[in-house]
Amino acid sequence: MKTLLTGAALLLSSTLVSANECPDVLKHMKRKLNSQEVVNLCEAYSGKAVLFVNTASKCGFTPQFEGLEALYTEHKDEGFVILGFPSNDFAQEYADESKTAEVCELTYGVNFPMFEPISVRGDSADPLYAKLAEETGKSPKWNFNKYLMDKNGNIAHYGSRTRPDDEDFLADINKAIAGN
Question: Quick check: pTM over 0.85?
């Protein structure tokens, strides 16, 4: 019985340590796009390099979905994930989530996690994006704005014009995956 209690205490203490190690930016629950499934971002993505992208279905930058998916496919087994957050802050997103999901999945073949539409800037910014802006000093100026968090929780900002295949951006992703 004593061994069982000691094991339970060790398990509980390791769980508490893990929760404390989760970067603040991941301490959110988010609903997946066009679904009722809710994801605890800490549990799902802590310890990974994470690229946060605010997306829109009717934007000149929407074709970046192809490059983002290629990045995700290439690096997902290395501890890298892309999290997409549709936003209508720039009046270029559908009000109907099923249409947004259709653009992502059917038009661009997106397999990286996409979440419920949120506001990404200003006073109405979702707490996740408010935290990203606080950490970097930069809020999204347009769709397909990017925040790259390395495995240690350090966050860098990239504007919408930074393409997924940009050489410097790719080098930064590789460093983030390595934990540098």
Answer: yes
Residue 21 parent element (H or E): helix 2-21
Q: Answer whether 71's CB lies under 8 Å from 164's CB.
A: yes
User: E strands of the chain, at which residues?
Assistant: 29-31, 38-40, 49-55, 80-86, 146-149, 155-158
Cross-strand pairs, 156: 148
Q: How far is CA 174 from CA 14, 36, 72, 75, 135, in A?
A: 29, 33, 12, 9, 21
* CATH at 135: 3.40.30.10
**Catalytic (active site) residue 104:** no
Q: What is the pLDDT of residues 77-99, one digit of tens each?
A: 999 999 999 999 999 999 999 99
Q: What is the total count of domains within the chain?
A: 1
Classify residue 8: in a domain, yes or no: no
Q: Which domain holds residue 67?
A: 24-178
Q: CB of 148 within 8 A of CB of 172?
A: yes
Asked whether residue 32 is assigned to any structural domain, the reply reads: yes
Per the domain annotation, does 154 fall within a domain?
A: yes
Each residue of 27-81: pLDDT tens digit?
A: 999 999 999 999 999 999 999 999 999 999 999 999 999 999 999 999 999 999 9
Assigned domain for 12 exists: no
Nearest CA among 126, 134, 138 for reference residue 83: 126
Which listed residue (22, 42, 59, 104) is catalytic? 59
Token digits for 84?
């997409």
